[in-house]
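Moderator note: this is an archived Q&A kept for reference. The question asked for a predicted structure of one protein chain; the sequence and the answer are reproduced below.
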Amino acid sequence: MKKLFYIIILLAVAAPSFAGNPDRQGEAGAYELLMNPWARSAGLHTMTTSNISGVEALRLNPAGLIRINKTELVIGHTRYMVGTDINLNSFGISQRLGKSGAFGVEIMAVDFGEIPITTEALPEGTGATLSPSWFNLGISYAHMFENKVSVGITFRAVSESTSDVSAFGFAIDAGVQYVTGPDDNVKFGISLRNIGSPMTFRGEGISLQRPNPDSEGKYALTYYTRSQDFELPSVLNIGLAYDLWFKKGTDEVAFEKRKSSRLTFLANFTSNSFSQDQIGGGLEFGLHDMFFLRGGYKYEFGSNENEGVAAPIYSGPCAGATLQVPTSKNGKSTFAIDYAYRQTQIFDGTHNIAIRFNL
């Protein structure tokens, strides 16, 4: 147990070494790894490092994967920055393995629709279209120690391709969550995400045809160019949450049956290796474990210096809601619908919706 505390302290102390670096902004790739297709955490600007649970934990902090009843299945759809015609489709499942382990799988695909193909000779379009295929697959495992500390790791495959160009890479996420307090109401979390191999585009699409330099014959030669490697957008998240329970009576034995509502306060710091750092906080109110309202605000350091398209996309408010109903007599199995909205500096915001089954 002491070793785990040392790991938490070490990661917290190491945070300055991951301080945001605006001079490197735009040098990374595969930014779909920072997109959140899940509505619950999106309703709090993906700042739930300390208390995220189940399938959604694969996207932010895999240590929270184990904090489910038994089985969770989530299907999500996102309208990304309305006006761009970009959508995210996602599916995930998590499963407890005994008392102290959990396994999860997540798939996210980016849908760009049909994009007209243009050339120098036909800038208005050739009549043909292309549809890029971006997806990533995450496989995660989490382990809990004494119901207080959980650790998790995610292995993720990243693929970006069109009909004639493709890039492929691997990434690793790791995280820790610590729960304490009289009602397990104080939560702390750290996660390090998107640490992996550089990616490079390859394929016939980056080849060029040029005339034969030998004047004796007129024919074209094909030259294959080498694409520059690009790094993954690695980030470090540190979060803290506090649950304030409103319960009827003071009988600790009957607490689970008699609790009526909860108000959660949370704060989160994100250190980006290839852009500015971010800080924010939020609130979530839950009523009878059936209806939830949440909202938050995220600020990116240096955002006041930028305007228009140069401003951070998600520096601002967010909100979300959940309707959850029990599907079993003991109330442990539930069906839920999650929704989230995030304001964007350009276009008309991002909408997330998901359906969740807890078994």
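Archived answer notes: The helical segments are 2-14, 39-42, 57-60, 255-258.
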